[in-house]
Design goal:
With 378 residues, this protein is of the alpha/beta class. It has 13 helices and 9 strands. Helix 7 packs parallel to helix 9 and helix 10 runs parallel beside helix 11. The protein is globular. The N terminus is likely disordered.
Length: 378
């Protein structure tokens, strides 16, 4: 009799333990489900969520990186492999191996690809503006070189790339047109020609103008005039890319004015290279001009041993304000693209001061989402 009673008690304890375990599993499953969807799912009815990817990441086969990428992002842009110096390092010799591999990598994951970029004064091949004697080429030769490059590149990726950053960073902070060699050799109409050639090469591809410092009133006015000029010549421009290399002190009021101004001209808007630095900028004026460089000083690198909770919380508050802005204007925003996934690979670690430690991206150096990622997902 005592043996039967002990067996019954043991069975009851097993049943209770099973109930407890099932309850715990249910709680864990519920918690996992809460974060099972990523950023792309949270904003799927509003805009694409993108990131920049480099060729090392494409080829490295990092399981964690690929998992985070596919969980949170549905759009990608190549960090470097689709720029002119890579695609045509020698005149008339096009190198598509890396770019093809990148586009294939994105396609296998069902991700939208943006082509970056066709015409940019920086990272253009050294031969582009000179003849074999080192003398600047004529306007006619320069136009033909630009046409051939755009036709070949856009034509090669026809049907595989949603849209192109046709012209990149052509406007200065004072609103004047940058005195790049494209402008110096061809003239101000090089922008019109670039958009014309890109449309001819793939009439179905979207066409964008992309630039930094879009919270600057003078630059905003110049880009509005550019949109009007293109349209007055019967040319297409589908969207303006606001690079959005921001810092915690960036003026979102002026930033929003630019969103409204561009939308008012009948084009869509995108945040194309978003990162939010937590570090001081040496001269106080934020810029993404890649040639900018300052000497290292300790006070410019306050978080070399790790970001403080206070600063991370401040970044979270800024990001919530920024994504509230994107939500308000989701009728015109088509894409929000971070310039990278993890702080470990951000260009801001070395710009504009080499050797700094910055924390501008949604995932930390261990590929863990920062708290504000889940906050904005809600």
């Amino acid at each position: 009799m005592k043996t039967k009673i002990k067996l019954v008690i043991c069975k009851l304890r097993l049943v209770r333990l099973s109930v407890v375990m099932l309850s715990l599993c249910a709680c864990v499953s519920s918690a996992q489900a809460q974060h099972a969807n990523g950023l792309k799912d949270a904003f799927k009815d509003r805009f694409l969520i993108g990131t920049a990817v480099n060729m090392w990441q494409v080829r490295n086969g990092d399981t964690l990186f690929n998992s985070v990428l596919t969980s949170h992002f549905n759009a990608v842009v190549a960090e470097n492999c689709m720029k002119a110096e890579v695609l045509q390092p020698i005149e008339n010799m096009f190198y598509f191996k890396d770019a093809d591999e990148f586009v294939s990598y994105a396609g296998k994951r069902g991700m939208v690809v943006t082509g970056h970029c066709l015409v940019w004064h920086s990272q253009a091949p050294s031969w582009f503006f000179r003849d074999d004697k080192g003398v600047r080429v004529s306007r006619e030769v320069m136009i033909e070189r630009m046409r051939r490059h755009i036709y070949t590149v856009v034509g090669h990726f026809k049907g595989r790339v949603k849209g192109w950053d046709v012209v990149n960073e052509a406007v200065e902070f004072d609103g004047s047109l940058r005195r790049s060699e494209f402008r110096e050799i061809i003239g101000e109409d090089y922008i019109r020609l670039a958009f014309q050639f890109a449309h001819e090469a793939d009439p179905d591809a979207e066409l964008y103008y992309n630039d930094y410092g879009m919270d600057n009133a003078a630059k905003r006015g110049a880009v509005v005039n550019m949109i009007r000029d293109l349209k007055s010549h019967g040319l297409r421009i589908d969207a303006v890319g606001m690079q959005s290399h921001l810092a915690l002190g960036s003026d979102l009021t002026e930033y929003e004015k630019s969103v409204e101004a561009f939308a008012g001209e009948g084009v869509k808007v995108m945040a194309t290279e978003l990162d939010v630095s937590v570090l001081p900028f040496p001269n106080g004026t934020m810029t993404a001009e890649v040639s900018t460089n300052f000497d290292y000083q300790e006070y410019l690198n306050p978080f070399k041993n790790g970001i403080s909770k206070e600063k991370l919380d401040e970044q979270g508050r800024f990001m919530r304000r920024l994504f509230d802005l994107y939500k308000r204007h989701s009728d015109v925003f088509t894409r929000v693209t971070f310039w990278g996934v993890s702080d470990a690979f951000s260009w801001k670690n070395d710009f504009p001061v080499h050797g700094r430690t910055d924390f501008p991206l949604p995932f930390d150096r261990d590929m863990k989402a920062k708290p504000w990622v889940y906050e904005i997902m809600k």
